[in-house]
Amino acid sequence: MIGTVARVASLLLLILPTVLGASACTVDPDGSGPAARSTPEPTAAPTRAPARPRSAPWRIRVTSVAGRLGARDRPALRARVGRTLSAYVRAAFLSGSYPRSDFTGSFSTSFTKGASRRARADLALLSNRPLGPTTRAVRAVRRTADLSVLAPDRTPVGVTAAVSLVFVVDRGERIAQRVKVRGRLMLTPAARGTWRIFGYDLSRSQTPEGRTS
Amino acid sequence: MTPVRRALALAVVLAVTVLGVPAPSVRETDAALVKVETARAVDHPRSVVWVLCLGSDARPGERLLRQRADAIQLVGLNLDTGAGTLIGIPRDSYVDIRGHGRGKINDSLRYGGPQLMADSVRRLVGVRPDYVFTTGFLGFRALVRAIGGVTVQSRFAFSDPVRPQGYHRGANRLNPFQALIFGRVRYPLPRGDFDRSRNQQALLRGILRRVRERSSRPGFLERGLLAAVRHLNTDLPPAELYRFGSAVVGVRPDRLEGCVLRGSAGYAGAASVVYPDVAQARRIGDDARADGTLQRGC
Fold it and tell me: For the whole model, what pTM was predicted?
């Protein structure tokens, strides 16, 4: 009896964070999709070791509007721009089968063609390429974007996203690394309500996380 | 203290140290020396862009594009290298105007709008502008207001009622009205219209410098571009203007080489005109056309 209660309790303990985590992601453009494909998800199997925490959800805010943007339009803009930002971060850092050395496709769905070409020349800064071959998993511990919007005539035509991204890169026996990517991503509308990144002005730093895993 | 007690105390200290102090500190601290790498790029359809910047003489209530162009600057920007060229064209330059015979180049705007103005400049310099931006007195002031004023490097000291302290040689911090006057006056300047054109180039550098300094401030670029949407006449749709503006931020004002076309003063009938040095204009155009920069100087 006691064993059954303990199993149920442990099951609840494992399920609860998952449920709470999902509700915290209501503004997360990753949704329930492949948000943190590289991050092992919590499972309900009580015999497994405790799962690692999943990636932090996105926090995306519209912080300034030059022109006018209705209150109703802001969530839609946030969601659309968020999808693009999320697609980039997933492809360049979180997803893929690690260890991984090919990051050239990181920008194909989220950047304009020209920006994608330029970004491939800056792979070491715009993706996890420097650590990819020795990476076991990547987890985002911070994903924020403050959007400055240009919206003459009530229609958004340009967005600068001030992003702050922090990843913890698990490298197995090697020291884990904390990677910070900060700066600006510039976006304009593309077809069918999507947005594309046409410019970037980013900085990247990397420090040891403090313990081997 | 006995040796045993000393050893014990030492052991306690060591144990506390080992247990209490974190593992070798590799976590980032404020004082840590961290290598920070940066990258910047903006996708623009053209890597070299030629912009014809016009200041219309239109007074409030007059049609912006049906007046003379008081300020004429052909700006070449190399968006890959961040370098560029400012080619000042004296407004009284006496040239061929398509469909109108010979006349002052600034009349091209009045006769045929930005297209004819661009055509007259192309015929003189040999460079076809990709974009034409036209603004008037009020629009220019609104643009400068949107970026919070501008600092210009003046080559001359002169006085004007709008600036009680006067314009000094060197750096001058100007409000929108003072900036407008700086780009308009010519009588206090030794070479009149030629030096005024240099002042207009100093203004363009100052505006670019200001925008670059503040471009990372949230909303600054968007506010400036909103002012541009509202106060610049251009065929560029707002989204393209946004991309263009974002790209221009990558251009360095200290790498914008200025050149004012030479010419000699004279008369065409009763009109005071400037006969431009067409050979120099073509040489400059040939030099800068491909990459937006002057290799052989002015």
Answer: 0.80
For the stretch B152-195, pLDDT in tens is 999 999 999 999 999 999 999 999 999 999 999 999 999 999 99
Contacts of B86 (CB under 8 A, 6+ apart): B73, B74, B75, B201, B204, B205, B256, B257, B258, B259
Cβ of A150 within 8 Å of Cβ of B37? The answer is no
Residue B270 phi/psi, 5-degree rounding, is -95, -5
Q: How many residues does chain B have?
A: 298
Q: Are the beta carbons of A58 and A33 closer than 8 angstroms?
A: no
B37 touches chain A (CB under 8 A): yes
The dihedral over CA atoms of B218, B221, B227, B231, expressed in degrees to the nearest 10, equals: 180
Q: Is B33 on the interface with A (CB under 8 A)?
A: no
Q: If we measure between CA atoms, which residue out of B137, B222, B145, B207 comes closest to residue B176?
A: B145
- Residue B234: band (very low, low, confident or very high) from pLDDT cuts 50, 70, 90: confident
**Could you read off the pLDDT of B32-55 as tens digits, one per residue?**
677 888 999 999 988 999 999 999
Query: pLDDT, tens digit, for every residue of B41-95?
Result: 999 988 999 999 999 988 878 888 889 998 999 999 999 999 999 999 999 999 9
Q: Please give the Cα distance from B83 to B49 (Å, whole number).
A: 11
Instruction: Give the C-alpha separation, B85 to B281, whole Å.
Output: 13
Mutate to test the interface with A, among B34, B35, B40 (most CBs of A within 10 A): B40
Closest Cβ–Cβ partner in A160, A202, A209 for B222: A160
Q: Are A189 and A156 in contact (CB under 8 A)?
A: yes
Angstrom distance (rounded) from CA B261 to CA A99: 60
Please state, in angstroms and rounded to a whole number, the distance separating the CA atoms of residues B141 and B187: 21
Name residue, tokens 């002169």. B158
Phi, psi (rounded to 5 degrees) for B5: -65, -40
Q: Is B102 helix (H, G, I), strand (E, B) or coil?
A: strand
* Cβ B157 vs Cβ B88: under 8 Å: no
> Predicted ipTM?
0.80
Q: Tell me how far apart the alpha carbons of residues A60 and A64 are, in angstroms, rounded to a whole number.
A: 12
Separation CA A26–CA B248 (nearest Å): 37
Band (A139; pLDDT cuts 50, 70, 90): very high
Q: By the 8 A CB rule, do B55 and B70 touch?
A: yes
Q: Which amino acid is at B18?
A: V
d(CA B294, CA B298): 7
Spell out the residues 6+ positions from residue A72 whose beta carbon is closer than 8 angstroms to its own.
none
Candidates A111, A126, A152; nearest CB to B39: A126
Distance (Å, rounded) from C-alpha B17 to C-alpha B10? Answer: 10
